[in-house]
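Complex record, two chains
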Amino acid sequence: DAGVIQSPRHEVTEMGQEVTLRCKPISGHNSLFWYRQTMMRGLELLIYFNNNVPIDDSGMPEDRFSAKMPNASFSTLKIQPSEPRDSAVYFCASSFGLEQFFGPGTRLTVL
Amino acid sequence: GDSVTQMEGPVTLSEEAFLTINCTYTATGYPSLFWYVQYPGEGLQLLLKATKADDKGSNKGFEATYRKETTSFHLEKGSVQVSDSAVYFCAHGGSQGNLIFGKGTKLSVKP
């Protein structure tokens, strides 16, 4: 099993640019979660999906953030336009049941 | 609302010392309880879990017992190693299939 796959692993961009983070969950899992981790705020849940449907997006910081899950094997988190305060490590996790399996994360730096 | 409270870090110990990281939770009913570990540069991974009162989860020498009377799930290890240096997160199952995480406790073990 390949585990949760995230791409890219590192992203450096300039303020105002669009950023798209990608996630492939573990096959057979029916829930997918996007988290953000920073030194200041710790681990924050942004949004999660169940059977490809967004269940709770109350953690999405603002309208610049959007997430989609077009099918059971793929999800994206988009930031448009990006700002320096969006710099963080973004994790995707998937589950079937309560135990979540995390990907390696995408380290985003917005200059 | 649902929440998890962990002891503040960082925690610094010498090798072979005894470790306790306190965790208490607030939730409706009796949720499943988890400890996750995050090694430097990696995503979170499940360390151990307990699904009902008085259950003891254990893995890699770490243990935690589900105490419903005190709503606690403290993590313990009898003899820590340098390789145990990581951030430890306590979590409980939420009402919508998600996990409620604590803020994490950073552990540093010195040789």
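Note: Chain A touches chain B through 21 residues (CB under 8 Å).
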